Amino acid sequence: MGFTKEQQNNALQDIIVYNKQGFSNRNAPPQASAMFSTTTTAAPPSGSDMPLSCQNSRKLQCDAGARFRTADGTCNNLRHNLWGSSLIPMRRILAPAYQDGISEPRILGRNGGPLTSARDISNMLHPTGPNGQMTSLTHMVMQWGQFIDHDLTSTPVQTAHDGSALTCCEDEAPRNARGQIDYNNRTSCFPIPIGSRDPFFRGRTCFSFPRSVQVTNSNCQQGKLKTSSRDLLPKDQEETCVVHNPATDYCFKAGDIRVNEQMALASMHTVWLRQHNRLVEQLALINPHWDDERLFQEARKIVGALIQQVTYGEWLPIVLDPGRMARNDLNLLGRGRQGSLYDPEVDASIRNVFGTAAFRFGHSLIRDTMSQLTHNYMDAGSWRLEQIFGNTSQILSSQGLGVDMYMRGLVRDPPNMVDRFFTAEVRNHLFQDGTGNSLDLIAFNIQRGRDHGLPPYNAWRRYCGLRPVTSFNNMPDQEFGTGQAFSMVYQHPDDIDIFSGGISELREGGGLVGPTFACLIAEQFRNVKIGDRFWYETSDRNTGFTRAQLEEIRRHSLSRILCDVTAITQIQPNPFRQVSIANSLTQCQDLPEMNLMEWAEGPRRIVDPQWGMWGKWSQCQQGVQMRYSNPCPGSPEESRVCTSTMNKPKPGGPVWSPWGSWNAMCVRGKQWRQRVCGKNGAECSLERSALVQGSGRIRGK
Q1: Do the Cβ atoms of 6 and 164 come closer than 8 Å?
Q2: Which residues does the record give as heme b binding sites (predicted)?
């Protein structure tokens, strides 16, 4: 069983809606416009050279004194209430390059000849090539990029009248319906032709490609986000993934419909769900007078700050050269400093070229496989991407420990180089169904740029102040000899698609991307930062934090968060870089943590809840046992790695001793206790560690 066409379309929702916190409802109904104002022909930001075609007419009543962001990002900007919000069109920098000047995708080149099929460009210019790896970085660079991308952007695509997925290729239609529809004149479609000699997709004539939607311009308990068992994401009633076993498997539901695309992404969503709920638990103990809404909003505000800090403080300095970071005001303030460059005339909305081309650079980082590692970073399995696309059983079958194992794999595996080569897992096997039908992500990237009317590569080179390509024999910022590959698929340098040209550039300085993509990415993240009234470093105590609270947030890191919400016990301080002398493997208790007592209102309290007695261990299922304690703030369950022989010990075999006492000191909100297996613990295998983590008794500090 594999992806259905509806699931493939959902997974391929590309890049339009912007929401800083990811709590909005992005399922907007398609709205046709008499002005052909599609998702990609929106009103440009203030100061743009483009004329305003239309403005969104929604009238909002904004509370200038609000302490928290709205769910959809509206009213962040009190002068321009919709800037930076969800369900608005992406912004233009340059005039669109449509074939008819209105809305038809570009299909002809500068010399009047037809543009090469996006699939042929993928085959000839972006094959599965050397696939060199960046051994100084980790695959977490890719995963964080995808997580942030999905938080910033989403593009709904056209559907059939009944809401089902559009069929844009005759050979994908039911046999009894073939010949009844002229697919060439179906305006909602922009199919990608597949050549008869395609090396992989033999027998298929095209990929269905629905065009982007045209536009005219929370379940909560005690402040927590909803979960399922074992602190996993809740169940989605709609089948948005591949369900192998209906009796045990289900699809995850999160703030973004694409959560089930691949299981490392689902694991990252789970990490932040747990972090939110963990913050709620501790804030409730510190401030028992806060109601559910206050707990939810305060935790959400902290989560938003942490995501901004990780993105701008840990991740973006790897993507962009230090000089580019400084020139665009992207560096964070140092400790002890507080302030913001907020400018209400800066539009934080997502730009079309950023979402449709530049920020897709991360597709080149993707490896062939995703690793799962045990508690001591030993290999527990390596999965090809085609095996984990939409496959939630990868997490559910391991009693939730798959989340921990994927996180360890992400901080240990190196990513592929950012270049013009891509793994076959996304070029030939994307969202593969049970019959072997799949898609090509790179061809879709190129086609989406044409669908959105993005001007060609040279136009963006000029916009960024870079020398345009005038000859394939001498392409600036490209590896020597690359021009020959471009000349095989483009008739003129002005025909080059922005994605293909930008991704092929040599890296700029100490960053990951070339100068064109670096220019476009840096400008977008500058707008997101400076156009955000709630930017976490602001000195405004109402929209931001106190100085003491900000210092506590600065102490936190992504590695610390992974320690707090998974069973990881040691990790490098910077999870985006490989373990090294300067980034050595560190015990979790030695990583700085955030002291939430800075959020206490009124006299500070010492909170010392007591756990009840543990219940019995469950049967060993797929290497995991569970047991539960009486209700108490914090997680009521504990897990350990086991073997099936632990259920029925052999006569005379090793058995666990009784639990020892809890240690006296509270370390990062947790206490520990120990027991041994066999005589002096000597008979315990590596899979049956003698040290078991307690379930986090929380003490106020």
Answers
A1: yes
A2: 363
Q: Which amino acid is at 380?
A: A
d(CA 15, CA 190) in angstroms, rounded, equals 17
Backbone dihedral angles phi then psi of residue 289, each to the nearest 5 degrees: -85, -10
Please report where in the chains the tokens 């400018």 appear, as a residue: 343
SS3 36: coil
Q: What digits encode the pLDDT tens for the residues 244-294?
A: 666 666 676 676 667 766 778 888 888 988 999 999 999 999 999 999 999
Query: Domain locations in the chain?
Result: 608-701
Catalytic, out of 150, 276, 375, 452? 150
Yes or no: say if 242 and 1 are a contact pair by the CB < 8 Å rule.
yes
pTM of the shown model: 0.76
* Helix pair 263-286, 558-565: axis angle to 10 deg: 80
Task: Give which of 303, 304, 301, 296 is closest to 280, Cα–Cα.
Answer: 296
**418, 376 contact by CB (below 8 A):** no
% of the chain beyond a pLDDT of 90 = 43
> Which helix (H) or strand (E) element contains residue 371?
strand 369-373
Q: Is the pLDDT of residue 653 over 70?
A: no
Model confidence pLDDT, tens digit, residues 170-199: 666 555 544 445 545 556 777 777 777 887
Is 363 labeled as ligand-binding? Answer: yes
Q: In the 8-state DSSP scheme, what is residue 351?
A: B
Arithmetic mean of pLDDT, 411-432:
87
Measured in Å, how far apart are the chain's first and last C-alpha atoms? 51
| C-alpha neighbours within 13 Å on the C-beta side of residue 196 | 0
Helix H segments across 133-262?
Answer: 140-152
Give counts: helices (H), strands (E), the chain.
Answer: 19, 14
H/E run at residue 193: strand 192-193
Residue 432's pLDDT band (cuts 50, 70, 90):
low
Token digits of residue 663: 């240690």
DSSP 488-542: TT-SSGGG--HHHHHHTBPP-TTSSS-HHHHHHHHHHHHHHHHT-TT-TT-S-TT
- Above pLDDT 70, what percent of the chain? 62
Q: How many Å apart are CA 132 and CA 364, to the nearest integer? A: 11
Query: What residues form DSSP beta bridges with 221?
Result: 224
Can you tell me the distance from the alpha carbon of 529 to that of 629, in angstroms, rounded to the nearest whole number? 44
Among 185, 183, 189, which Cα is nearest to 170's? 183
150 is catalytic: yes
Residue 308, CB half-sphere, CA atoms under 13 Å: how many?
A: 28
DSSP symbol at 286:
H
- pLDDT tier at 662 (50, 70, 90 boundaries)? low
Q: How many residues does the chain have?
A: 701
Neighbours of 366 (CB within 10 A): 22
The four Cα atoms 330, 335, 341, 344 give a dihedral, to 10 degrees, of 100
Instruction: Map residue 571 onto helix, strand or coil.
Output: strand
C-alpha 687 chain-centroid distance: 32
Distances (CA, A) of 169 to 107, 417, 605: 18, 34, 66
Compute the distance between CA of residue 471 and CA of residue 476 in angstroms, rounded to an integer: 10
**CB–CB of 655/649 below 8 Å?**
yes
Q: Residue 177 and residue 631: Cα distance in Å, rounded?
A: 58
DSSP three-state, residue 692? strand
- 636 CB-contact burial (10 Å; exposed 0-12 / middle 13-18 / buried 19+): middle
